[in-house]
Amino acid sequence: MSGAKKIDLATIDVSDPAIYRDDCWRPIFARLRAEAPVHYCPTGRDGPFWSITRHADVAQVEADHATFSSAHEQGGVALEHRPTQSLIQSDQPGHTAKRLPIMPAVSPSNLARMRDLVRERTARVLDSLPRNETFDWVPAVSTDLTSMMLATLFGLPIEERAQLFRWSNIINADLDDPDSEVHTEEERHAAITDFFRYMLRLAKARRETPAGFDIISVIMRSEEYRAATAFELTSVLAVLLVGGNDTTRNSMSGAIWGFHNHPDEWAKLKAAPSLIPAAVPEILRYQTPILYQRRTATRDVDFRGRTIAKGDKVAMWYVSANRDETVFKDADALRVDRPNARNHLSFGAGPHRCVGSKVAELQLRIYLEEMLKRDLRVEVVSPPKWAYNNMAHTVTALPVRIAS
User: Fold this and answer.
1) Low-confidence winner among 116-125, 198-207, 248-257, 315-324 (lowest mean pLDDT)
2) Bridge partners of 261?
3) SS (H, E, C) the chain
4) Residue 128 CB neighbour total at 10 angstroms
5) Angle at CA 267, nearest 5°, toward 337 and 342?
6) From CA 186, how far away is CA 183, in angstroms rounded?
7) CATH classification of the domain holding 51
8) Percent of the chain topping pLDDT 90
9) Per DSSP, what are the bridge partners of residue 49?
10) In what order do the strands lie in the sheet with 38-41?
11) What domain count does the chain have?
12) Cα-atom radius of gyration of the chain, to the nearest Å?
């Protein structure tokens, strides 16, 4: 598929996980944006679907929840048919009702409580890295820091972070990925059941003494979730787990790869650390940790001259919108001083904008600050390995070396 210009448009299937594993998606989406920005694929792996690839069009679909539904009754937010009743798979006004009780857990005041802990852990991980030998940045740094933050958000000892990380990976795994821990829905269901039971035990304990500031304690103080069914409660916690894992972990790894490909940008950041607040959204744009989300048309609609029928699947490709040259000049490049980097769609937009976006930005900002403080010279030894997955843009391995 890397020779996208030679392929019949009708045969292009951007839901194929292989194009992300093989890192050959850029020219394919560039062609779709130019020639077929509202593209119909009749033979997708999970059935026919439409692709929305331009920035303005993705934002429009995100905003029109009356026409383009996220609801689990309509099929949810993945092209694969695994609808579950949860925060992310709901429409207005129910979506806001489920979202509001979570907000205190990620409020500025609560993030301020976490800031020193995040910095101390980041410093400890970076100081422990080997020098003058090759190691994998993903487990040593990206996974370790992200899983510690997940444990903090869920109010768990960091010793339990590996289990949280495992559950997150299984929930979002592609069953056809040879590296996946699970390969059948039965295996996935068994692992998710373990997660649900674990979360229900925590929720029960924190319902009785909900004084903490972790996510579970915060939502158990709300009437919305105190009255929720076990499935509704655990489903929203699963969404928060996966979102917290994929976004930060993959952006941390993507930053290293981006600066390797654009070393002048790292030099620019070293010379002017005040650029870090601009560099964080640019890294999120460049990496785009979540590749897409699905919506389902609730009525026949004419969209940019194409007729999308009621019931059709519609995929909003954030990874393409974030490379739209009409919005981001030199879009395939990492530019730490990009003036409009905050226009990225890596967190989605509108009512469904990622509830944990400020947590991810906090982690990434401290990550860059602590790396600069140590003047770490990270040399990428070989290109990253990418997951066989069409939803999470996951770096699974990144061999590096740090010169002393």
Assistant:
1) 198-207
2) none
3) CCCHHHCCHHHCCCCCCHHHHCCCCHHHHHHHHHHCCEEEECCCCCCCEEEECCHHHHHHHHHCCCCEECCHHHCCCCCCCCCCCCCCCCCCCHHHHHHHHHHHHHCHHHHHHHHHHHHHHHHHHHHCCCCCCEEEHHHHHHHHHHHHHHHHHCCCCHHHHHHHHHHHHHHCCCCCCCCCCCCCHHHHHHHHHHHHHHHHHHHHHHHHCCCCCCHHHHHHCCHHHHCCCHHHHHHHHHHHHHHHHHHHHHHHHHHHHHHHHCHHHHHHHHHCHHHHHHHHHHHHHHHCCECEEEEEECCCEEECCEEECCCCEEEEEHHHHCCCCCCCCCCCCCCCCCCCHHHCCCCCCHHHCCCCHHHHHHHHHHHHHHHHHCCCCEEECCCCEECCCCCECCEEECEEEECC
4) 10
5) 20
6) 8
7) 1.10.630.10
8) 63
9) 41
10) 38-41, 49-52, 313-317, 292-297, 68-69
11) 1
12) 21
Residue 257 sits in which domain range? 4-402
Compute the C-alpha angle 259/261/263, nearest 5°. Answer: 55
pLDDT tens, position by position, 3-55: 444 678 989 999 999 999 999 999 999 999 999 999 999 999 999 999 999 99
Give CB contacts under 8 A, 24+ apart, made by 334-337.
334/258, 334/259, 334/261, 334/262, 334/265, 334/282, 334/283, 334/286, 335/262, 335/265, 335/282, 336/265, 336/268, 336/269, 336/275, 336/278, 336/279, 336/282, 337/268, 337/275, 337/278
Q: What is the mean pLDDT of residues 347-365?
A: 86
Q: Which amino acid is at 119?
A: R
CB neighbour list of residue 37: distance below 8 Å, 6 or more residues apart:
52, 53, 54, 57, 304
Question: So what's the pLDDT on residue 6?
Answer: 67
CA distance between the termini of the chain: 41
Whole-number Å distance between alpha carbons of 379 and 143: 19
Model confidence, pTM: 0.92
